[in-house]
Amino acid sequence: MEAAQEVPDRPPLDLNALSDEAFLSANGIPRLTVVDSTGSTNADLIRGVTEDPGAYPDLTVLTAEYQSAARGRLDRRWEAPARSSVSVSLVLRPVNAEGRPLPTQSYSWLSLLAALALREALLETAGIPAELKWPNDVLVRGRKIAGILAQLGPMEGGAVPPVVLGTGLNVTLTESELPVPTATSVLLEHPSTVDRTELLKSFLSRFATLYRSFCNADGDPTAGMAGGHSLHKRVEHLLTTLGKQVRAQLPGDHEIIGHATRLDEYGSLLVVDSGGHEHVVTAGDVVHLRPWTPPGTESGTESGEDQPGGAPGGASRHPGHESGYA
Prior knowledge:
Order of helices and strands: HHEHEEHEEEEHEEHEEEEE
Largest sheet: 7 strands, mixed
Strand content: 15-25%
Low-confidence stretches: 299-326
Structural class: alpha+beta
Shape: globular
Mean pLDDT: 87
Strand order of the largest sheet: 1-2-3-7-6-5-4
Helix content: 10-25%
Radius of gyration: 19 Å
């Protein structure tokens, strides 16, 4: 019988490193709070921006050592051992360099931007190459290591609503602790480090850089970003979804089967069916998106599809409606 994997050391996040003024100011983070335990960091920030909007400026960060009531897309629950993950949420109030709010239709790109930032952090900090799965997952070897959840906050006196963006990254989960067999963790991918503080700082730095560039381009995903190519091109290049036959399950037992070809200007997935008709599948509407093979052929499901053990997707159109997160 195979021996159980030893539970690794799980030190707390380094509060001094995370509260370093040089780090915070360099990334435009006005406030970073670490809590030992909470129900959900996303829920906490949604409540905060509702009750006291002025206390939660753009790029406010909340991270927790343990979440007891974390939820993902479509209200799916997930849980991980204390200090085994990076669980972080941010308040976003997207405006350009002149202070003009971004159009809300650009908000659907924010979760993809976060997935891209996390992918860069994993590669550069832990030496782990990752890919993106539309609309809200980060995969390693086809297994889900993280997910992103975006939620719209309340309207504030007619102003553009804020977005609360949550990210969950499996860091030191062992094989036996994985929520599903199709998940993975940083520890299981032979990393150069499992330091959650370094992973969190790296993610926040990369997200802040990409986010500022996106905002200064007025939320245009086709504009060149810091470091070269546009957000649209970067995401499409890393999406495992594109070029595959997929089945998109939609509300009301509707489904679309076809070839996933590209993303449109709003970050929606375009799927061409067998009749040549192009369908637009939005992150806020899709229930499941899985690879599809014709009946009678060898079939399989995509690793980590909508499973816990990662985090959320594109900002939904209704306050409080979750569109991704693991």
